[in-house]
Write a structure and sequence with these properties.
Number of strands: 11
Strand content: 15-25%
Distance between the termini: 12 Å
Number of helices: 7
Oligomer: single chain
Length: 234
């Protein structure tokens, strides 16, 4: 299975020495659940996009410090690319910014959340029945790092999960699109690194609660990766 990473940020200065690149986080995640996965990278932040669509591949749009509603040339092009890819029956995955930009491109709405920063591990109520069956539970727990949220789903989308902090924790469009507000690719160690070293200007109480959540709950990024492969490789 080929996963094409549409890289939207390299997070300069944020990655610790033991993480060679942001793409390497996705490679570690997916190869930990399937030895049949091969990854390719397209630096869409530099204007490098796939020129053709492989219907047997997955196209994953990553996180980013920019906003999905920004009008940087590459973000505008990415929104147009999503529409074209959908028409060509591409299999799409959106993570955090990717979740938001897919929603925006297809007619949904994303905005800055007045409730503040979403970080740490959050438990979300699973709505999607396939997802409930896969997780064997009514909830999912992922690591988060976001200020924006999808507040309106695009036409044809159904929610994957919801929480009191974020109404749309992810959505699907049939067996073609899966998105997650959370970060399956994160590790607890990386999340702690961000909270301890790169949270200037954030509410200290939010950071304290986030660190506590990482100590209390297990991040289910691997289960989310399994669900992505299971759903999009039918």
């Amino acid at each position: 299975m080929r996963i094409n990473i549409l890289l939207c940020d390299t997070f300069p200065g944020l990655l610790p020495d033991y993480i060679p690149s942001y793409t390497s986080m996705f490679e570690k995640l997916f190869t930990s659940v399937s030895q049949e996965v091969e990854l390719s990278e397209y630096r869409v932040l530099d204007g490098v996009f796939p020129t053709t669509i492989d219907p047997d591949a997955i196209y994953l749009i990553t996180g980013c410090n920019k906003a999905s509603y920004d009008n940087d040339d590459w973000i505008v092009k990415l929104r147009h690319w999503v529409v074209d890819a959908m028409e060509k029956h591409a299999k799409l995955v959106g993570i955090c910014f990717g979740h938001q930009v897919i929603a925006m491109a297809l007619g949904g709405k994303t905005e800055r959340y007045a409730g503040g920063w979403g970080t740490g591990i959050r438990s979300s109520q699973i709505i999607d029945e396939d997802m409930k069956s896969h997780f064997g539970s009514d909830d999912i727990r992922l690591l988060y790092n976001h200020h924006d949220q999808v507040v309106q789903l695009p036409s044809g989308a159904t929610p994957l999960a919801s929480s009191s902090f974020c109404q749309f924790e992810g959505f699907r469009i049939g067996d073609q699109v899966l998105t997650f507000q959370g970060h399956p690719e994160y590790t607890p160690e990386y999340a702690i690194h961000l909270l301890e070293n790169h949270a200037d200007g954030e509410d200290p109480e939010v950071c304290r609660k986030a660190l506590k959540s990482i100590g209390l709950w297990q991040h289910q990024g691997g289960k989310a990766a399994e669900f992505i492969l299971k759903t999009l490789t039918k």
